Amino acid sequence: MTALIGESLPRPDALGKVTGAANYPADLVRAGMLHLKVVFAGRAHARITAIDTAAALAYPGVVAVLTAADVPYNAFGLIDHDQPVLCADTVRFQGDKVALVVAESKRAAAAAARLVQVSYEDLPIVTDARAAMQPGAPLVHVARGSNVLFSIPIRKGDVVQAFAEADIVIEDEFSTSWQEHAFLQPEAGIAYVDEQGRVVVETAGQWLHEDRKQIAAMLGLPEDQVVIRYAAIGGAFGGREDLSIQHVLALAAWRLRKPVALVWNREESMIGHHKRHPITVRCKWGARRDGTITAVQAELLADGGAYASTSQEVTKVAAIFANGAYNVANVWVDAYAVYTNNVPSGAFRGFGAPQAQFASEIMVTRLAHALGIDPIELRRKNLYREGDIEATQRPLPPGVSVRECMEAVVTELRTRRIGDGGQGREQSHATSHLRRGIGLACGIKNVGYSFGYPEQATATVELYGEQAIERAIVRVGAADVGQGTHLAMRQIAAATLGLAPEQLTLITDDSSQAPNAGSASASRLTLMAGRAVHEAAKAALQQWQDEERPAIATVQFRPPATTALAPVTGEGTPNYCYGYVAQAVEVEVNTLTGQVQVLSIISAHDVGRAINRQQVEGQIEGCLAQALGYALLEHFQVRDGRVLTPHFSTYLLPTALDMPTEIVPIILELADPNGPFGARGMSEMALVPLAPAIASAIHDATGAWVTQQPMTPERVLAAIHAQTQAPRAGSTE
Amino acid sequence: MIPGEFQYFAPTTVDEAVSLLQQHGEDAKLLGGGHSLLPAMKLRLTTPAVLIDVTKISDIKGVSVNGSVTVGGGATYHAVASNDAVRSACGVLADCVAQIGDTQVRNRGTIGGSLAHADPAADLPAVALALGATITAQGPGGARTINADDMFVEMLTTALEPNEIITSVSFPRLGAGAGAAYEKMRQPASRYAIVGVAAYVKLGSDGNVAEARVAVTGAGPKATRQDATEAAITGTNGDDAAIAAATDKAGEDMDYLGDIHASEEYRRAMVKVYTKRALAKAIAQARG
Questions:
Q1: Domains of chain A: which residue ranges?
Q2: What is the spatial order of strands in the sheet that A199-203 belongs to?
Q3: Do B189 and A713 touch (CB under 8 A)?
């Protein structure tokens, strides 16, 4: 039955999702439920001087208006509890929640929400990360005394000497902007108190047990008095890691002892949940004439927005990838996350890696140009090898395969002769405003939790029958956010047990029925939850062979330990597994308008072992769409703390017409030592190198470097104009 | 996203519509396809007490081609885009409206509605200016005509009186020796013009450009003729060098608006790019 591993079984949930039969959280709303409307601050920074709910309460159909006084423990957050559920005295960003209106109809709740009178005294705002670090900047959290939310240095070797001895040194500054998750299904859910007196929230999320923990803490309840259930989840991408509506639904249901429903519209979703961190990278790279990269110095400055969310983890991830996937003897990184009055930044597919490597991959290609070495050759010389030492001074976890990924891309590129236009290309460049170029980039991103955060996944497998196993139940609290993890778990369990996939029942979406497998994040579920399922299935099978009926085994899997980074040097073992990727792209640039069309993408991934090949390809292709949007289109604009792009008419997502006609996913299977059947995570990797690959292709086509993400037509055109008028500032190329 | 309350009328004749306008004055708004008005109402940027739906007035929905192309104020974009006679008599008009918005927009949006609203990013005002269209409006005192050149006064402001309704718009037939084109950079989601340029040229018997009109939309507060470009191309043989010289003068003397879609500076650059495209296409068409 191990034949099941790798097989492109069709998704059991596909038909329901295509026909509309699937129940997403908004489909759970039933007649007779109360409706909740959030009253947002609508301003970036202010003191609340009074909240008058009388007019709202008097509105026909209104049942309650909840404010900070109604929240038992009014603070939450994935790491620091620095975010109020409902603001009591200060609002710190536009999407801060001030009150909840609960009414018998959605319409009444919306109408009454406009009648909640909040008196504000506006406070000075700080919306620029660098300005926020300056002495005297308005403080977002006064009690902290500083806007610096987190900082980490990384020190390896001696960069001063290395730069002094380098034959070539280049420096530049790169900026990346917010990215919106833009999942198809905005936040929604219902909550009620069940017959056992437990508060039940049925919604979408990425980690049942973490949602449960935070909501129990907010309500001052033991965790077993809170039940989280996930309906079909319409995408997540990190955007459902932080609580957005789950806790306020629970609060209203708990207070009122009645079923409550909430369905956000797109604008509420855009304003209400966190975004990808904008990060500015100032960096300096040095190399010897023979192509050895000898030193990297970088300052990374992340805009954390109004609340901590996962900023410190994202900042650390960005910091350890300041040197990309390259073996560099001397590394000096200072990374900061700061509070501002912008929308909070948090988890988003890639989690700091895309921002850091937008800079590092462009710098490597520019170093190659400056040295007169082919960028592929320069990468061959410097890419990580097995046993190399990370910037944190510890050896990489085993299974280093970035070179194999790049060689697969290079082979494919040559086979297809992409960009090999020869004389024709030179001619077209002389006469046409449409110019083609190719670009290549590599990427690295951790799989699983980092920096000593407790990492585990637990699964239970139950086997029933008499002589032969007739059916099995697999319990694993792993969220299927659309990536297909439930089918992967089914295939792993069926293959291990020697059963047909349909003989299995999966229990995955109820915190009271499925054990904690950790979050659907960090590309970790196939490796972590998959390994737990694999081990639990093996253990249950052993019990079955020992004549136990039913045979029930619960296994907790823990991977090799990671460590926190030392505060002065950044020394430590940050991760137990990395995913590796390489990409090549061909683009066509309109040099008159700055418009860029991506013509072709080759994306090579070491996935360890594909559990379901079709799903792996689906993850690569879907991730590439998100990556292309990040690279070229998705410009989340905020002015004075106000979101200017809260709709899809203003925040541009890629469509089929923006995608290249050719996407070539290449799947390498170099077994990971910890993954089930050798599988390793892959879901985020395609997002890491695409933007720098496109930037390099734009340079190949036009001679201009774009250093700001997204690379909008306007920025590309400005870069082309700047390049034709003056040599780049700040570069010794 | 819920509009305020309003009274709704659906007159079936122009006279009825005009008398309703008279009766309700500033409180009333005409409703055509509703694509501009209803979103503004939902956002409560405007809260008219009275809506007069003109889509039931059959007299203003006609499209006819005789000596000129006459389009009713209530004719939909689709009615114009799909009319073969319009396409052969004045292809640029059909081409322009065929790429407005999407199918749903073209099935409801009206010619009169677009011109009366005068959205700074609408396509039709540029084409009306370049073709020298004539707008017929009816008010309490009867009908009058307005030249396109006099129509667009300021952002979202036209020469129409509050109690007037556009009954028809007349566009010229493009005969032998004439050519016109509309080229635009569209905002990908709304398809509004970030910059749109309409160009019309008429060649003389010597084959040189005898007459030219060029108009820009999307770049500034209102659709604007490009006098310097027109002057520069007129009298030339319309070759690449002449087009390039005329293009250089495009957008030099006009007001720009920057927004989240594009800065003023970018729009200024795009006016030249799209002027060149529109002029080249119009001249090629005029040569047959």
A1: 31-123+187-263, 279-449+568-725, 456-557
A2: A62-66, A97-103, A34-40, A260-263, A188-193, A199-203, A226-230
A3: no
